[in-house]
Write a structure and sequence with these properties.
The protein is mainly alpha-helical. It contains two helices and two strands; from the N terminus they run H-H-E-E. The protein has a two-stranded antiparallel ribbon with strand order 1-2.
Length: about 80
């Protein structure tokens, strides 16, 4: 794109996630989006190259994140998923 300003339409839950991240990290919405896209890009790179993304919580519980593909439901952006069992 040659224009420095572009527009796009985002789902309200996506916007809410960006706003929460920006407020929590005390950064602009643009910076929040840049960081979230960067995290997602790194996770995607790991997964497409055969790796796994593992979340390890302070209580030592773990969760393996599924690759986000068209046949895997996307997690809700409003609530963090919790491992049960």
């Amino acid at each position: 794109m040659s224009d420095s300003h572009s527009s796009l339409t985002m789902h309200p839950t996506t916007v809410a996630a960006i706003v929460r991240f920006a407020e929590r990290e005390q950064v602009t919405y643009s910076e929040a989006l840049r960081r979230l896209v960067s995290y997602g890009s790194r996770m995607h790179h790991v997964q497409v190259n055969g790796g796994q993304v593992v979340l390890r919580r302070p209580d030592a519980s773990e969760e393996i994140l599924p690759a986000l593909t068209s046949d895997v439901p996307w997690p809700c952006l409003d609530e963090p998923r919790r491992e049960t069992g």
